[in-house]
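Hi there,

I know you've been waiting on this one. I reran it after we fixed the sequence typo, so this is the corrected version. Both the input and the resulting structure follow.
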Amino acid sequence: MRGTACVRIPDGECHILPTELPDTMNANTWIVFFACLVIAGTAIGVLLTRPVQDDVSFKPVSVNMTEGITLDTPFPKSPETIPIYKVTNITVFFIGSPKLMEIKTNIPSEDEALSIAEKALEQYGGLPADAVLRKTERVAMKEYNTATGVTGQEYPQWTQVIYTRQVAGLPVVGPGAEITVCLGENGELLQFDKVWRTLQYDRDIPIISAEEAFDKLKRRDLVEIPQSSLNGLIVSGIKLGYYAEDRDHDQEYYNPVWIFYGTTHPEIDRTLYPFIVDARETDDLPE
């Protein structure tokens, strides 16, 4: 398998510059950093997993509680077989600027960021045809008063645009499943992270049902092991999809996975995260 890679980091490394903050902050004020920190292509979030796409909504009604996990959605119909795809090429880009964490005065709006991001990607091969927009978001530091619980002034840092991927209409999850573009002052490209593999249909393989996959979830038999307990997890969506390894993994195939979307702390975080179970019927298949 052949591959291409490009890494360019100003000053030879990515680092964070100190930022001067207003004198108005007192002992009761915290600065909460909402940052898009990328380490070897892996985004860090709750339970070290990635947020789910917006088409799965949270439903707080409990249906079935097993092993500390609440199932709050019906099982989808499970096909007997599904295609697997052989990786024929991989393209990797990472560009990072130390200016990412600096406070800005004029970052793009979410609507403006879409066209700016697509334009910026042209010099890196453009946006892949099977890329799907997941979200745009303005990222900022915020003052938070611990005494009053009031959020104060915001300090803009960047606007990020995140694309994910679908294969044959099914979502791709994992650390190698996204393109992230971060735009700074006046739309300057500050960070670009891409791991994208070219795929070719290989063959159909048998898979386990969603019910069997849920049993594996209850046993904590996951592709990505969260560092926090799954007790209290509320599953609100189930989808069949594919898994993409990180940039350092010489992945030969995109194999099928069952994706259980849920949250363990709905009272403080209603974002749904993917909990990923290997969907292959046997484990002696190529990785």
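Quick highlight: Residues 2-278 form one domain.

Best,
R. S.
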